[in-house]
Amino acid sequence: MSETEKPATPLGIPKAEFIEDIAAAAPTMEDAEKLFQSKQEILSKYRYLEQGLLEKQQSLKASRPDVVNNLTAVKKLSSQTCQNDPITHFQISDSVYGTAKLTQSKTVALWLGANLMVEYPYEEAEALLQTNLDNLDKQLAEIENNLVFLRDQIITTEVTVSRLTNHIISTRRKAK
Fold it and tell me: What CATH code is carried by the domain that includes residue 91?
């Protein structure tokens, strides 16, 4: 089976091939060096994919608290049924807070990104934020699964590269 025929993850990451018998797979020095180069290229591709997944995971983890805070705020707003206009404190920046008087409303404006803000009734806003949070958690779980699979492939490829290096060294020593 070639590298392209191997089973892959939904992300398309090919499964690493473990070579049981290095001497049989690379009988000559030229074959060993070609195989070594091939495995080094695959290893660098795996590491590149891992870096991309780690960056995406970090980005999603950084956005999760905002979604949770927004969902909590919408739930709190929808649960308040007092007649008075409540006063609230909100964060403007890291150490600067403001005070605002909230007027009674049945809607909330959500910033959807890309310079787009949409006004939703509380129930719809809560449902949208909950869906976004569920999707975020699902994406994080998928990325974690892909990272575990990818780390296994990196380890397998590193072991193969190490064994190839040892084979090349022993072949050179025998040739002397």
Answer: 1.10.287.370
Residue 8 lies in a domain: no
The reply to whether 163 falls in a domain is yes
What is the residue-level pLDDT of the chain in tens, covering all 176 positions? 444 445 566 678 889 999 999 999 998 999 999 999 999 999 999 999 999 999 999 999 999 999 999 999 899 888 876 657 777 888 898 889 999 887 778 888 998 888 899 999 999 999 999 999 999 999 999 999 999 999 999 999 999 999 999 999 999 898 87
Q: Which domain holds residue 43?
A: 27-49+61-170
0.70 surpassed by pTM: yes
Q: What are the residues whose beta carbons fall under 8 Å from the beta carbon of 108, sequence distance 6 or more?
A: 74, 77, 119, 120, 122, 125
